[in-house]
Amino acid sequence: QVQLQESGPGLVKPSQTLSLTCTVSGGSISSGGYYWSWIRQHPGKGLEWIGYIYYSGSTYYNPSLKSRVTISVDTSKNQFSLKLSSVTAADTAVYYCARKGYSYASDFDYWGQGTLVTVSS
Amino acid sequence: QTVVTQEPSFSVSPGGTVTLTCALSSGSVSTSYYPSWYQQTPGQAPRTLIYSTNTRSSGVPDRFSGSILGNKAALTITGAQADDESDYYCVLYMGSGIWVFGGGTKLTVL
To answer: Cβ–Cβ of B1/A63 closer than 8 Å?
Structure first.
């Protein structure tokens, strides 16, 4: 059974960089066949796809966040990470990591429990 | 940027049938957008109901079905139950590796 677990600071100051890591267990990122995704949810609001990465390092980002987002992968640790720079209060959200099949005709099938990140001084 | 629109809220009686939709701000949704549907209850991560328009995820009851209705993707719940009261999200593939979620529909069963 694949499991994903987000980790990182729950509080980030405005203008700083938000950094989160997702640790994958029960499956190897380097096996391929999946994109490793970040999705966020503002309090009481809907879901927003941030971007994803393939084990090879290929990335795709939400155009509205692209200038501030970096997703990276560390296959040796079976982890992938999110960095979001120059954060403001508008970046306060629950951040989920999730796995998505490589095919367009696949879903985000495994999710982490989510971690709340608050941007505040 | 293209906006994906869902009904903000919907109500259905127990045992009733409801169809939630997922539309584009510009253009029609087709199978080429690979619409998926997710159910989310408070405090939980979303779970897949339907992917690739009409493929039911493992373990999902067959009273949940997906389709294209006119120019929108649709999720139909037949025989609604109390525990179907949740938020429902669609997500569409926009090309170039980009996915966009709809704003979600809050479904009330009463």
So the answer is: yes
Residues B99, A49: contact at Cβ < 8 Å? yes
Scanning A17-56 for CB atoms below 8 A from B yields 39, 45-49, 52
Q: What is the DSSP letter of A33?
A: S
Q: Are A90 and A120 in contact (CB under 8 A)?
A: no
**Three-class SS state of B52:** coil
Helix H or strand E segment including B76:
strand B72-78
A107, closest residue in chain B (CA to CA): B51
Per-residue pLDDT of chain B (110 residues; tens, 9 = 90+): 789 999 999 999 999 999 999 999 999 999 999 999 999 999 999 999 999 999 999 999 999 999 999 999 999 999 999 999 999 999 999 999 999 999 999 999 99
Residue B45 and residue A96: Cβ atoms within 8 Å? yes
Q: Does B38 touch chain A (CB under 8 A)?
A: yes
Q: How far apart are CA A103 and CA B110, in angstroms?
A: 38
Q: First-to-last CA distance in chain A?
A: 39
